[in-house]
Amino acid sequence: MTKVETSKFAVVAKLTASPGNRDAMIDALQLALDNAEAEDGTLVYLLHEDTTDENVVWFYELYVDRDAHAAHVASAGFKALGPALRPFLDGRPETTYLQPVGGKGL
């Protein structure tokens, strides 16, 4: 594989709901999905249910660059997520930052 030099920036985030609250948390996350729709620098913003843990959801996010990610987390919609999710979360979200280097869709 030839490594691709790109400015794109990716994030994987794991959110764990308190027991029995994953569906309610997913409903609350609609705010995040709606917010991302209006962001020009957000290329992919996908919410996934974990197939092995009934309390976990995952986000895969792809941005045109780090600045687009910074704009995303500074947005009013993103800032509103904390209060909306607080009743359903079991701990803090786990976030991993990634630099894409190759593959379909890059």
Main features:
single chain; 106 residues; alpha+beta; Alpha-Beta Plaits; globular
Describe what this molecule looks like in 3D.
By secondary structure, the protein is α+β, with helices and mostly antiparallel strands. The chain has one domain: 2-Layer Sandwich (Alpha-Beta Plaits), CATH 3.30.70. It has five helices and four strands; from the N terminus they run βααββαααβ. It has helices at 22-28, 30-37, 66-74, 76-79, 81-85; strands at 9-16, 42-49, 56-63, 94-98. The protein has a four-stranded antiparallel beta sheet with strand order 2-3-1-4, covered by helices on one side. The longest helix has 9 residues, at 66-74. The relative contact order is 0.32. The mean pLDDT is 95.
